Amino acid sequence: MSVSCLRVVGSSRAALHLIRHFVSKTVTRSAHCLFTSFISKDVWHSTMNLRALTTGRGLIHHTNLVNSPMNYCTGQVRLNCWNCNRRLDKSVFFCVSCKVVQPPEEEASYFKIMDCDYTFTLDTNKLQKRYLQLQRSLHPDNFSQKSVKEQEYSESQSALVNKAYKTLLKPLSRGLYMLKLEGMRIEEGTESGADSYFLMELMEINEALDEARTPEEANKIGRDTKEKLSELTEQIDAALHKGELQAAKALLTQMKYYANIEEKVKEKLSKFM
């Protein structure tokens, strides 16, 4: 083989080596970028989902997150202020530059909107403070002298904050919303997850409440119901932390029934007044 041929072969091999090295680095960086942005999604901040990520459980409920362009480093949406066109580095209610209210981020989770940890046992005091803070700044009355667009955005933002607050405030609606984020629902008007023994127990409680003739009798049922709801809250929190979504769903179904009894107790007590 001639020297010129050896040079061609050698240079070709070197070029091939460089190409392989470049492709390997590119793929590795892309994979790292995708994985990093994927787990940075606010819904993955919970212990439950981090455990699911490492064990492989529960991933089927999050496949829709992977398909979102916002989860890829090369496809992250960088929003600009509609008024001054300055880039908004993160989801905000107001532009840092011109102070103008921004349109609501409809796809954002309520936990993100209310700046709460993604957990069933969230800090309701912090939630209430956040709610009051946002409503003081976003209430439509503050924008009566502003442009039509600002008035519309303030109304939309205020309504979204109200909905997020009411959903996260009570354990039952909070838990149902968390299941919804996980791709699960509890059908209305069904007795899914409730066995015959449990339903019989509920019938007895309802009958005792109907037959209650004094406030003391109704209060006794109310105290027992609150105790049961407290126990269910602990069990649901434990199930969610373990990623046991079906168990959490069954427990939330029970919580719906007991929450209904709690409301009936209040109605019964109001009749004694």
TrEMBL record:
<keyword id="KW-0963">Cytoplasm</keyword>
<dbReference type="GO" id="GO:0046872">
    <property type="term" value="F:metal ion binding"/>
</dbReference>
<keyword id="KW-0143">Chaperone</keyword>
<dbReference type="Pfam" id="PF07743">
    <property type="entry name" value="HSCB_C"/>
</dbReference>
<dbReference type="InterPro" id="IPR009073">
    <property type="entry name" value="HscB_oligo_C"/>
</dbReference>
<dbReference type="GO" id="GO:0051259">
    <property type="term" value="P:protein complex oligomerization"/>
</dbReference>
<comment type="function">
    <text>Acts as a co-chaperone in iron-sulfur cluster assembly in mitochondria. Required for incorporation of iron-sulfur clusters into SDHB, the iron-sulfur protein subunit of succinate dehydrogenase that is involved in complex II of the mitochondrial electron transport chain. Recruited to SDHB by interaction with SDHAF1 which first binds SDHB and then recruits the iron-sulfur transfer complex formed by HSC20, HSPA9 and ISCU through direct binding to HSC20. Plays an essential role in hematopoiesis.</text>
</comment>
<dbReference type="GO" id="GO:0001671">
    <property type="term" value="F:ATPase activator activity"/>
</dbReference>
<comment type="subunit">
    <text>Homodimer. Interacts with ISCU (cytoplasmic form); this interaction stabilizes the (Fe-S) clusters on ISCU. Interacts with the CIA complex member CIAO1 (via LYR motif).</text>
</comment>
<dbReference type="InterPro" id="IPR036386">
    <property type="entry name" value="HscB_C_sf"/>
</dbReference>
<dbReference type="InterPro" id="IPR036869">
    <property type="entry name" value="J_dom_sf"/>
</dbReference>
<dbReference type="InterPro" id="IPR004640">
    <property type="entry name" value="HscB"/>
</dbReference>
<feature type="domain" description="J">
    <location>
        <begin position="109"/>
        <end position="181"/>
    </location>
</feature>
<comment type="pathway">
    <text>Cofactor biosynthesis; iron-sulfur cluster biosynthesis.</text>
</comment>
<keyword id="KW-0496">Mitochondrion</keyword>
<comment type="function">
    <text>Acts as a co-chaperone in iron-sulfur cluster assembly in the cytoplasm. Also mediates complex formation between components of the cytosolic iron-sulfur biogenesis pathway and the CIA targeting complex composed of CIAO1, DIPK1B/FAM69B and MMS19 by binding directly to the scaffold protein ISCU and to CIAO1. This facilitates iron-sulfur cluster insertion into a number of cytoplasmic and nuclear proteins including POLD1, ELP3, DPYD and PPAT.</text>
</comment>
<dbReference type="InterPro" id="IPR001623">
    <property type="entry name" value="DnaJ_domain"/>
</dbReference>
<comment type="subunit">
    <text>Interacts with ISCU and HSPA9 to form an iron-sulfur transfer complex. Interacts with SDHAF1 (via the first LYR motif); the interaction recruits the iron-sulfur transfer complex composed of HSC20, HSPA9 and ISCU and mediates the incorporation of iron-sulfur clusters into SDHB which also interacts with HSC20. Interacts with the cytoplasmic form of ISCU and with CIA complex member CIAO1 (via LYR motif).</text>
</comment>
<comment type="similarity">
    <text>Belongs to the HscB family.</text>
</comment>
<dbReference type="GO" id="GO:0005739">
    <property type="term" value="C:mitochondrion"/>
</dbReference>
<dbReference type="GO" id="GO:0044571">
    <property type="term" value="P:[2Fe-2S] cluster assembly"/>
</dbReference>
<protein>
    <recommendedName>
        <fullName>Iron-sulfur cluster co-chaperone protein HscB</fullName>
    </recommendedName>
</protein>
<keyword id="KW-0479">Metal-binding</keyword>
<dbReference type="GO" id="GO:0051087">
    <property type="term" value="F:protein-folding chaperone binding"/>
</dbReference>
